[in-house]
Please model this.
Amino acid sequence: MRARYGIPLKITAGLTATAAAGIVYAAGIEARSFRLRRVTVPVLPRGMRDLRILQVSDIHMVSGQRKKRAWLQSLAGLRPDLVVNTGDNLSDTEAVPEVLDALGPLMEFPGVYVFGSNDYYGPRPRNPARYLMEKVQGRHGLNGNPPVVGAVHNPWEGLRDAFDAAGWVNLTNTRGRLKLPQADLAFTGLDDPHIKRDRYERVAGGPDADADFTVGVVHAPYLRALDAFTADGYELILAGHTHGGQLCVPFYGALVTNCDLDTDRVKGLSTHTVEERTSYLHVSAGCGTNRYTPVRFACPPEVTLLTLTARA
Model:
């Protein structure tokens, strides 16, 4: 019996140990290994001074995450020209005060924001394999899935009121402006397409003609939102939501994006083309996870400092 079953049992034990070590690493090390990504985007009109935008996304704050809070607070030392928050700040109904504590130093700078589905609704346990199934079936969020029933509602109004009080501009299906020393900037934002709250018809019409530059902002980079922004002539779109794939395969990349965006553009800077128009697209991999899947693998948490420079 030993000769017959010894090797398979050893293999099983080895695989179990390897899987356990991977989970420990993904949850205990990589999910807490916060990074700053730096990206340069040659998109501004000629002669315009450089702009430094700090994009913060998908914080998914859970009460007690002291390391994440301290790291976010430290980012104020970068002295960005403005902050863009692309949503999903919460993963805990009690975490609003901790989000505001983490972002407090950054709220001293000009900023704009949109919300994501996790700002509005509390998380619930979910089988990670469903993301792969939904990808195959072309179903993501409420886009093809039945409406959510019995969802927990987060106290997102507290976030909104605090952001507004700090002077950050709410871009929920609307337009906004920021007058900075080096530029008059315009922004066009959408509410979260992942839960079908986007209303592009309310903001259609293209960039503000009297602004120095206009940016499109949305939480989830669904193709309908990217198509609309690009067709309307926006040269830069900022989004989050994807977590960079969250659980990636080394030397291969992401398996899913949790929306209809392709995995080649799951994070970082890329382009989006509609007919003869092309926009730069930056998708933040975010700096958090859903509280019920607190793991990241081959995809460390991050925020991005984008330096916008003049076109050549």
Remarks:
- The mean pLDDT is 92.
- The chain is about 25% helix and 25% strand.
